[in-house]
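User: Run a structure prediction on this.
Assistant: Running it now.
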Amino acid sequence: MGETMIVLEAMLLRAAAIHSVLASPRMLARTVELLEFHHCSAPLYTASDETIEALTGIDLHRGVLAVAQRAAFEPISIDAYAPAVAPRTVLVCEDINNIDNIGQLFRIAASFAVDAVLLSPTCHDPLYRKSLRVSTGNALKVPSIRAARWPDDLSRFCTRFDLTLVATAIQSSVALRSIVPPARVAVVVGNEMNGVSAQTRAISSHIARIPMASAVDSLNVAVSAAIALDHFSQGKRV
C-alpha cells in the first residue's frame, strides 16, 4: 500500500500493477487527472480524510491511498539484475532493519544518481508503506536487488560488474576524501548498532572514514550514505 500523492505517482510508473486507489474529496480531482495521464483504469474510490485516517491509523496519508501488486515492485535477485548499461554507482545496504532508514537511503540513492541499491538478506522491506513514504516514492524508482547469501553475493556482484567495493567504517580506515573515486563503485553502509560487518570489510578494497569532531562517535546511516555518495557517485548530477 502506498500513501501520499508523490508515492502514487511513483506507483503509476507501473500503472497496470495498480489494484485500486482511494482519495479524499479534496484530492479527488488531482487524483483523477493523474490516473488519466497514466492511462490507469484501476477503480477509484473516495472517502473523507477522517475515514482514511481510521483505515491507516495515522494522519500522514495526505488524502491518497493506493494498493498495487507487490510482485511488480519487488527487489530482484542478483542473477536477475541485467541492466542495459553496467552500473557505475551502487549503494549497498547491510542489515539496515530500521523502517525510516531504509526509506531515507532510497531517497538519498535517487538524489545522488545511484544506479541500484543492493540489499543484504536482513534489510527491512523497502516496500513497507512507511518506507515508501519516507523515500518519497524513490523505493519504487531506484532498481533494488536482494541478495540471498551474504557476503558471497556481494562479492560476486562486484566481480560481475567490475565494481570497487568501499565500506564506510571507523576500523582500519582512511579519511573518505583521501580515496580517489573509482570509475565503478559500490558503497557499503551498515546499521547503526554494528556498522559494516567484519566479513564485508574484509572483501572491501577501501574502508572509508568520515572525519568528525571527537565528541561525536557516529552519524545516522542516511547522513553517512549521503556524504559518501557525494564523494563517490559517478552518476550525473546538476
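Helices lie at 5-11, 25-37, 49-56, 99-111, 129-134, 152-161, 198-202, 221-232.
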